[in-house]
Amino acid sequence: MAEDAAGLDAAASTGSAADCTEMEERQEEENMKADLEASLPAGQEASAIQCRDVCRSYGKLNVLSNLNLTVPQGHIYGLLGPSGCGKTTLLKCIVGTLKISRGHISVLGKPPAYPGHDVPGRMVGYMPQELALYNEFTISDTLTFFGRIHGLTAKETRARMDFLVDFLDLPQKHSLVRNLSGGQKRRVSLGAALLQNPELLILDEPTVGVDPVLRAKIWQHLLEIVKTGRVSIIITTHYIEEARQANVVGLMRSGCLLAEGPPDAVMKQHSAATLEHAFLRLCETSDQVGSKRGSSPPGGPLENSQSFESGRDESRPILAVGPGAAQEVPTYSADWKVRARHVLPKWRNIAALMIKTLVRMKRMPGSLCFQFLLPVIQVSLICLCIGGEPNEIQVAVVNNETSPSAYSRSLLSFLDNSSVHQVPLSHAEAFDGIHNGEYWGVIGFGENFTSYLTKRMMQRQVSREVVDGGSVHVWLDLTNRQIALMLQKNLHEAFQTFVENKLGSLSYLVALPIKFEEPIYGSLNTDFTTFVTPGAVLSITFYLAVGLTALSFVLERKEGLLDRCWVAGVSSLETMLAHLFSQLFVISVQIVLLLLFILLVFKLPNEGSLVLVVVLIVLQGITGISFGLVISAAIDDEQNANQAALGIFYPNLILSGIIWPVECIPYPLRYISMALPQTYASEALRCIMYRGWGLSRMMVWRGFAVTLGWNTFFLVLATVILKLRS
Ligand SMILES: Nc1ncnc2c1ncn2[C@@H]1O[C@H](COP(=O)(O)OP(=O)(O)OP(=O)(O)O)[C@@H](O)[C@H]1O
Question: Which keywords does this chain's UniProt record carry (predicted)?
């Protein structure tokens, strides 16, 4: 506390002797530069990283404000600062996973992600703050995966792996990452950053959760690898004192660099015995000057820090190292071939990512089986439970005829007994029962039904009483339309069979004057299942692909895996293509199983080309993957991603005419329905399967065209969102 108070006093006296202090500071800066230059081995004055006037904000929150930082070549740079001051953000800007809003960054001679530059790529080893490891991988899988991306041969990877397992004191290399302790996982993550012997190491808190002995060993290794002068390291740590081993430290606060220089020089300048005290003094001085200037704009400490030290360049740290902020930004150029190569996807990376997905699938056999079987289960449930004939429908029968040869008995015998269960009752019991919900209908016959019906059949003119008495009277509970319709249909069919039985060739005399000829397409027995299934197959394929894609990407981003792969040199396009190809494998198996079930088990007809059927379903799967990519590009959190995927499920299912014909949708909504990915596609699939149509028919090619259109739109949208958000 005494020291803190002294620091505050010193800061207070700064204002009264401003000129004097300024001169002293300049002198100190000169001394610092001299110290740093003296610490540089000959020929290493070049800088590995240069940040000039770097600004970066998240929305309205300014995280980096005119930050200047220089990491000399062949040095360890310890970046220190309190939690939330912007260290991780700065590192992400340096490796290129975040774009800066203003300023200039040069990493190993060029801006990050510059065409033809290997940053991100092989030149940089990045250990993010998150563990960023695949839990289903073993240590060996993890290092092999990054080895593949960096283009190491299997032999090189093995040699490095053996060294790193030994050096980082890792468990057996066949241990699963998910079974490792927190500290062991961090060491695997560090191993992945060190794997390819990069020229630049960017380590975000590599020693958190690591025991002091291993921490010392890691620092010793870092000091050793920089000795050659080829490797430069920037490291953040919460253990401020361990940064004394760094060649240069940068003290950061509220998005600005307060000081930068060799640790001893920083401590000397602030008459502090430890780096922690030096940092405390710097903060106090910064606060003093800030409050003296009265410049406390709203927006929190990040903005306050911009007004550090009155009368000097705000962006300049107290102890600048290397070229000043005013240095001109160099211009870079790359010819079109390099630019084209930079944009084109690398098959090596795509293959590495696909192998990664396959290895993960292999490690999760339960989940893979579920993925394969889920669509089959869903479509089986649809075929079994939707559109079939109701069974054992309870119907009350009030028959006032008693004779065993009565027509009423004969007619009732033609009623399908498996679907209609007849319960003979008295008039009162029957109506009590239907009012109590025990029966779906009451079928009534008058006592003269047989004689009246005979008269109706034989005589040209009959009275109204004869017509009424010779009719079957039916009272229905129409609250369930499907059951009521089935009862009506069964009664009509029973009557038709009865008439044919009684009148034989003369039955046409009592037939309705409407004759349904052989159907042009489909069969007379077509049920609702036949209508629903094609659309359901498309919808199932689409949604499973949406779910898998959206969730896997959101989770990978959340765990820092996407960033880590990007820094290793994998582009967003390569990630998307690899995901698309590996998902295509899953979709293909799903589709084969789906088709086997609907065509062979549930015997749905397919009059058209099986190739067209398969291609259309695969394209719908790709639409699902593309839509999943849009969700994962736009949404960071898995809960929101889930909600987005589920949120569109029901409206899309209803509006696409999958469970009920589009013709029933009222007009303003019909336009939306027509634009949806599955409306015309379902229609096209029905046309192929039931009408045997090919691509020459508009209703078929329109389904393909709309699906391809959506695929393109979703993929472009996902790419644009990813670009805008990086
Ligand atoms: N994706 C983001 N969206 C919005 N704000 C963010 C985001 N990432 C970081 N921030 C904010 O930016 C500020 C700096 O965060 P950053 O992670 O760079 O700090 P840090 O110095 O690395 O902290 P720590 O030492 O705790 O890791 C914090 O206020 C944080 O809340």
Answer: ATP-binding, Membrane, Nucleotide-binding, Transmembrane, Transmembrane helix
